[in-house]
Amino acid sequence: MENRGILFDKDGTCIRFDTLWQAGLQACFETLSMLAPHHSAEIKKILAIQEQRFLQKHLLDEVLYQELYQELAQFEELVEQGISSRWLEQFFYDYLRKNLKKIEPIGDLKQLFLELKRKNYKIGLATSDTLPATMLIMEYLGLTEMFDFIATGDRYLPKPDADMLQAFCQSCQLKATEVIMVGDSLVDVFMGTCHGKAGIGVLTGNCQSTDFEKFEVAYFRDIHEIPYQELWGNTKKKKIYYV
């Protein structure tokens, strides 16, 4: 049996994160408004724009924190009180830590991963999120030991660059042609398509079916609907699955 590796995206693929992120933005707004009350309306507008960026791209990463800080830096009161991209990252990490019960896994992830591991698949996680937040979530869900490899946006180049996939291959002694990437966004499937064996989309997050169909990308309702062994053989024939 050939070696097989599957890289999973996190947000929108393994867990539903939208509601927690939106609630975190509201908490951030309340805190920043207290620090700069005269700019409350402007701060609310900035955070609303960042909320739309997250909902559209499903990225919670260092770039988002940096962009948010660049917008907030126009308010001297905030800068003088120590607001920075690192402050924002820590704020959302602390919010996450206090609200772990709001994290919603998509189906029985442990059962799925155990089944894949019994079939000798190597399992990796490739996310734009930071390592501390990712480990906090995986530990809370009891999934840390399920992964043979974890790559985060603060340690590797962002998807669809090959960096995360290549590191997965090196760590698990795989060839790039032995790795499938599964995710809810086009950057996920492009990474798998361009640098691995294939990229597979799911409809539990960012993209609609039409987004995947536009690029002739195989997609399924969620990661539990994917017929991994059957799909593995058919990707060699470039057969496209639409569900």
Automatic annotation (TrEMBL):
Coiled coil: none
Superkingdom, taxonomy of origin: Bacteria
A Pfam family: Hydrolase
Gene Ontology biological process: DNA repair
Cellular-component GO terms for this entry: cytosol
Alphabetized GO MF terms: phosphoglycolate phosphatase activity
CDD domains: HAD_like
Protein known as: Putative phosphoglycolate phosphatase
